[in-house]
Design a protein that fits this description.
By secondary structure, this protein is an alpha+beta fold. The protein has a single domain (2-60, 79-189), classed as Alpha-D-Glucose-1,6-Bisphosphate, Chain A, domain 4 (2-Layer Sandwich). The protein is 40% helix and 27% strand. The strands form two sheets. It has a five-stranded antiparallel beta sheet. A hairpin with a 2-residue loop joins strand 6 and strand 7. Helix 2 (32-39) packs across helix 6 (156-189). The protein is globular, with a radius of gyration of 17 Å. The relative contact order is 0.24.
Length: 191
Amino acid sequence: MRVNNEVMNLMDLFLPQYQFTEEHSRYVPASAAHVLDMLERPEVVDDPIARGLIALREMPNRLAGRIGLNSSLQNRPSFGIANFVFLGRDGNQELAYGLAGRFWQSDYGLSTLSDAQDFREINPSGIAKLVMNFTAEAEASGTRLTTRTRVWCRDADVHRRFRLYWLLIRPASGLIRRRLLKRAHNAAVAP
């Protein structure tokens, strides 16, 4: 995507302002198109370690439901890539996904988003917006695959709540992102 002869990526388009960020990258000996194609395959993004970490995070809420207490996760599938709204693919350069909600709540407090336009327009107080992207840049005879996550908090209360949550989940979030890169690598080089 070009704006005034400058390259603008999807992440900048959907979340130009942010207070929290995370970035990881990995070299993949395959073409950018092939690498991004791998990231669109459900079996690549469905990581058993990530599922385990998510199950651990959701356990108190789900356990509450099993013993008869209020549980907003009781009849919902575990959190995963399906909860993100697809923001777009910019050729063989970038994939982007968005999420909005009160992530620090035990049920994530997700806002319902049906498409990229919903993500762009949602702006109520009390929520955070997150964009996770994957960029693919030519490097040597392969691709430098990078994932970035940005979070924007509209107001001071959300910023305060998210900051504490970020401190707690960032190590697991980083592990999940690095494993996604590894799974994309392995899928891209598989015969």
